[in-house]
Design brief:
It comes from marine sediment metagenome. It contains 25 helices and 16 strands. By secondary structure, the protein is an alpha+beta fold. The protein has a six-stranded mixed β-sheet, sandwiched between helices.
């Protein structure tokens, strides 16, 4: 414990003047807040203390008795570094109550996360090897953990709960004040240590990107988004109805295998029963070990497809039904998701309450073709701007591999998957002409054989099949797509899948070279790094355990390639959002709402929507080219931005 009386409790204007005069001399200050609870985003909980401290003394400002806005010149000055732990929370508490936005930050929580990204604590002083199963762990470590690890100090965090239960007007105890002071005083030696480690690991640029991203991440949570609740409920009812249709189809398949009905003639079929499903499949000639998704995907029978669809709709109803609507704030009637800016090992965000990253998107490769996009709407007088980096990960793959043929595809601006299908499978121009012509008329109500010859329709389906295969390869190649998984996906012999991959890598030899080189480097160095320098670390198993060692090497090989591509994607998106936040700071009513992978969604005043859309497109283009120098960001090197009343594609 630091010596007593290393803090000054500030509860009147005279003390504020003295404190600010003293603190403004320093270029680095610890910052922390104590609040009545954790619900600061929608204003439910209030500030109790605001702590600013040098290495020797902490000033504890009581915003119940003084005007907390008077701290703005220090808190908003980017030239005075504010150091803290989980500064996103401190930013939000300060901004929501006082309208003061922190600027110039160093977050010890994020710094340590960057230094250990990918490493899973085994609670024995080491890390779990790649490929070994483990329970999911929360991505961040607390201040007490870091103080113990690096400073050898045991912090008593039990005092924190006394603030949460603290009566708003009640005076603080000396123990509470000392606790508040320690929270900022311990930060200084921690920052010295972590800064040196970041420097040694070449992570300074990544840390600066992440520290700047605290602002847009915090603002997105504060801003929230308006949800059309009636439309949401209609979609859920559609999902329930579709699930019931599929359930009846499954029951028709299963009923012949049931021994009897109930006394009143009702079916005893239970499609949630694993035993009934396994028994039915065995009687249908498919002996299965389980009914997991990956197992059912390999079964060529309508029952498997129906089960996957039914489960998809059933999960949608339970996960995204009233459970999501119940999270809408009563204070402002908006949905405020929680974003973890380093929630994944690659640097991508994760989110919860609800998980926007997994929100159903109505994609053709999913079992559930329902989208909630149209429920995310702008307030009257506003518009939603939606922009994404088209095929960003494939463009990054072209950049890091410098495969000339792959780069040429993006420079030409054509259909990537068709062009790769042409180059890999040898589709001729005349065959492609037939495909493009028939595709124009291909819709659910059309009978193509009434419109085209049998040979043309056959050719159309052949090219369509080739395009699907190359699409899977294109998007899966950096994730360790194997011949086995390709064979499973398309239900083709493995030797045929191996030939497809061989032809692909023969065509794009530069990609093959990069994948091999980077994976070997990841194993040798025990880390991989993005174009910026963001690292993901790996632990290999003991070589004496040959099976586990081989498994950890293979897992590292796959993760190493994926981390470079997905991590660079995260770097690009965060760079764009950092710049957009600075732009939106100067446009009244413009705000970031959320991001889903490489898609950025904003809400802006309707009268300036077109102007801001152009600015957004250019900011995103420049952010992309900070990292990707030789590949265009899109057709004509432009980012497309849609303007609508709701979240659009």
């Amino acid at each position: 414990m630091i010596d007593d009386l290393n803090y000054v409790y500030v509860d009147d204007d005279y003390k504020v003047d003295e404190a600010l005069e003293f603190l403004s001399q320093y270029s680095r200050l610890g910052y922390d807040v104590e609040t009545t609870g954790l619900k600061v985003v929608d204003g439910q909980d209030k500030l109790l203390l605001m702590q600013l401290g040098t290495e020797e003394v902490a000033y504890l400002f009581d915003p119940r008795k003084i005007d907390g806005k008077r701290l703005a010149p220090i808190l908003e000055d980017p030239n005075i570094l504010k150091i803290g732990h989980n500064l996103k929370f401190d930013y939000q508490a300060t901004s929501r109550e006082l309208g003061v936005q922190l600027d110039g930050m160093f977050d010890t929580q994020l710094a340590y996360r960057l230094l250990t990204s990918g490493l899973i604590d085994n609670h024995k002083g080491g890390f779990i090897p790649m490929g070994e199963k483990h329970k999911k762990q929360f991505p961040y470590k607390g201040l007490a953990f870091l103080a113990k690890k690096f400073l050898g100090i045991n912090m008593d965090k039990s005092v924190r709960t006394s603030f949460i239960n603290h009566q708003y007007r009640k005076e603080f105890t000396p123990r509470q004040l000392q606790y508040a002071a320690d929270d900022v005083l311990f930060l200084h030696p921690l920052v010295d240590i972590l800064s040196s480690m970041l420097q040694d690991e070449g992570l300074i640029d990544t840390a600066l990107l992440e520290f700047e991203f605290i602002r847009p991440c915090a603002e997105m949570e504060i801003n929230g988004v308006t949800i059309d609740q009636d439309h949401w409920r209609r979609i859920i009812q559609e999902a329930k109805a579709q699930a019931e249709v599929i359930r009846k189809e499954i029951t028709v398949i299963l009923e012949p295998f049931q021994d009897q009905n109930t006394l009143f003639g009702a079916s005893t079929v239970n499609i949630s029963s694993k035993d009934q499903i396994l028994d039915a499949f065995e009687k249908l000639g498919h002996k299965l070990d389980n009914t997991e998704e990956k197992t059912l995907k390999r079964v060529d029978h309508p029952l498997a497809a129906h089960l996957l669809q039914w489960r998809g709709y059933d999960k949608l109803v339970s996960t995204y039904g009233e459970a999501v609507l119940g999270k809408i704030s009563r204070q402002d009637n908006r949905l405020h998701a929680t974003f973890h800016q380093l929630g994944t090992t690659t640097g991508r965000l994760s989110s919860d309450k609800p998980n926007l990253q997994n929100m159903p998107q109505d994609r053709e490769d999913e079992f559930v073709n329902i989208s909630f996009r149209s429920c995310f709407k702008a307030l009257p007088g506003n518009k939603i701007l939606t922009a994404d980096y088209s095929q960003c990960e494939l463009r990054i793959l072209a950049e890091v591999s410098q495969d000339r043929r792959f780069i040429d595809i993006f420079e030409g601006g054509g259909d990537l998957h068709i062009i790769t299908a042409q180059q890999v499978f040898g589709i001729t121009d005349s065959e492609l002409d037939i495909y493009n012509e028939v595709k124009k008329k291909d819709h659910p109500s059309a009978n193509l054989l009434d419109l085209y010859s049998e040979s043309d329709v056959s050719m159309y389906h052949r090219v369509y099949d080739f395009r699907n295969k190359t699409k899977v390869i294109n998007f899966g190649i950096a994730y360790g797509l194997s011949a086995w998984s390709l064979a499973e996906r398309f239900k083709i012999p493995q030797d045929e899948a191996e030939k497809i991959l061989d032809d692909y890598f023969t065509t794009y030899f530069g990609i093959k070279q990069w994948l091999d080189s980077n994976s070997h480097e990841s194993i040798a160095l025990r880390y991989s790094k993005t174009i910026l320098g963001r690292k993901r670390y790996y632990t290999l198993a003991d070589p004496e355990d040959e099976q586990m060692f081989r498994r950890s090497r293979n897992a590292t090989r796959r993760a190493g390639n994926n981390a470079v591509i997905q991590g660079t994607n995260a770097d690009i998106t965060k760079e764009a959002m950092n710049k957009l936040q600075r732009v939106y700071d100067n446009i009244e009513g413009a705000k970031l709402l959320f991001t889903v992978h490489d898609e950025i969604v904003s809400e802006v005043p309707e009268e300036r929507a077109e102007e801001i859309a152009e600015i957004k497109a250019e900011v995103m283009r420049q952010a992309f080219h900070r990292f990707v120098q030789t590949v265009p960001v899109g057709i004509d090197d432009e980012v497309g931005v849609t303007i609508a009343d709701h979240w659009n594609k």
